[in-house]
Amino acid sequence: MIDRMQAFLGHPTKFNESYIHSPNLDEIAIMGYMEYMIKLNFSLFDKEKILLDMFGMDENEYDSIESSPDYHILTDHPQLREHIIDSIEFFTKSKVSFDSDTGSFLINGIEFINENTYLAYVDIIKQLNVVESNSDNGRRKTAKAKSFQDRINFFKKKAQKKEDVLEIKDILSILCNAGINGINIFNVGTLSIYQMYEEFERLNVKESFSRLLPVWANGHLGESNKLPEWIKRTKL
Question: Which residue, of 28, 59, 60, 146, has the fewest CB within 10 Å?
């Protein structure tokens, strides 16, 4: 569980004597959004998403390991381990190593996560990066592309077709033009991904209030409808 105030102010979350960061938008822009998503997925330890969606593993082959623990499968293969190490290093800003004897990831020689604690790490990553829990865990996706890059390009093109879905760039543009908290095109990149989504959530609530206020003031708001309150707790 994260400290909401720490996350709101852009501070990292302490975990097992190290710190987990919510990356800022400048970092994501420099590396590229798809690279950020790759790193994020490896820190979520979801073997189905990684093996089927990203690496295009044959479904029959996946069936043979489906019941095996995600952590064991993903840390057993050297190439996957290296991707996970790279991912953890990105979110902790620390040098990470893997102890094959204990099956643990270490930071500065101290155990950071193992098979018993990795889900707590995943939970923090989800909160700091505003990742919603999957509601379609039982749905198997078809993996036809043979290479890792082909799968990434496939999902990128698929996402581009969803014109009604706001991308990060659109959210940043909205925040810059909302005239709130001094956020503008010159400093918006310093926001963490958590701060961006939190501010956007608050803006949406406040915008609903502002739009309905004149309707309420003129007595046109139905008796069963209440004026939404924007001074309240956010979901994030």
Answer: 60
